[in-house]
Amino acid sequence: MIALASDHGGLELKRSIMEHLQSKGLEFKDFGTYNEDSCDYPVFAVSAAKSIVSGECGRGIFICGTGIGISIAANKVPGIRAAVCTDTYMAEKCRAHNDANVLALGARVLDTSRALKIVSIFLSTDFSGKERHSRRVEMLKYLDSQMLN
User: Fold this and answer.
1) Are 102 and 82 in contact (CB under 8 A)?
2) Are 63 and 106 in contact (CB under 8 A)?
3) Which terminus of the chain is less hemmed in, N or C, by CB atoms within 10 Å?
4) 64: annotated active-site residue
5) On the CB side of 115, how many CA atoms lie within 13 Å of its CA?
């Protein structure tokens, strides 16, 4: 299950991503927003991020105007590794090297076609598990655990 979240600036792109995921037969849960009224991205980022940490969802796609704000909010949740990606190379590497579990996109930065390509790469790329990458991800997990204590 893929967690989806957006603010009002990312709503239209989120709807396109939902159609894309449906066409691929992929399940998702939409954590909001559901209309174009001005809203605060941290509310939706945190609730969707918690669903990933709890295991309800495996990964997430979060969208705001630039992808930056919603990624910062998501990364406040221990266990989340959100990466803003503006191209397919970044999407591949954030998964293969960093085991990113949230893709953050900027609806005002990307056109829909590019965003959907980035989504496809993010969802189809596995963590490489190479020693140096595993070591670094374990360091990030350790930092998360320290913040919880």
Assistant:
1) yes
2) yes
3) C
4) yes
5) 29
**Per-residue pLDDT tens for 30-57?**
999 999 999 999 999 999 999 999 999 9
**97 assigned to active site:** yes
Residue from 58, 63, 59, 26 nearest 44 by CA:
63
Q: Of the residues 8, 20, 97, 133, which is catalytic?
A: 97
Rounded to a whole number, what is the largest CA-CA distance in the chain? 46
What is the structure's pLDDT at 121? 98
Q: How far apart (Å, rounded) are the C-alpha atoms in residues 67 and 33?
A: 15
The residue type of 7 is D
Does residue 147 sit in helix, strand or coil?
helix
| Candidate list 64, 85, 94, 133, residue with the active-site label | 64
| Tokens 């969707």 found at | 48
Place of tokens 């009224």: 37
Residue 81 CA to residue 95 CA, distance in Å, equals 10
